[in-house]
Amino acid sequence: RYTRTLLDKGNGHYNLMILCWNVGQESPIHNHPNSHCFMKTLEGVVHEELYKKPDMTSCQCSCGCKMKKIDDRDYAIDNVALITDKDGVHRVGNRSHVDKAVTLHLYSPPFTTCHKYDDDTSKETEVPMGFDQDFSGRCCGTSCCS
Prior knowledge:
Layout: E1 3-8, E2 15-21, E3 29-30, E4 36-43, E5 46-51, E6 69-75, E7 80-83, E8 89-93, E9 101-108, E10 113-117, E11 124-128, E12 133-134
Parallel strand pairs: 1-12
Antiparallel strand pairs: 1-2, 2-9, 3-10, 4-7, 4-9, 5-6, 5-8, 10-11
């Protein structure tokens, strides 16, 4: 599993964190409820898949509908991305079989829960957002991605 390390709580205005992606790791498809997500690749290459936000009212099958991908792109070192719920929902991951990846994320405003979406049914599940480590204000001189 990828790790989420909190670097700064931003006085309640934002969360700044480092995500470390081992080979082949990816997030579930998820949203950023009423928040802007800025992501910068610090190491390696990460892949983003953007999906249309599911509309269960137009689904023809009672078992749900497959998520519809609308775009995908790679972000190499120093590339920056922005996503909001207006853009859609997304999945981020490290497709490399050799190299790890590290990304810096700023979420404004911060959020404590988000929704993840099942690839095959578009079923939405609310999940709590947590951190593997909390170095807010004290990361200097310490490895955040151990």
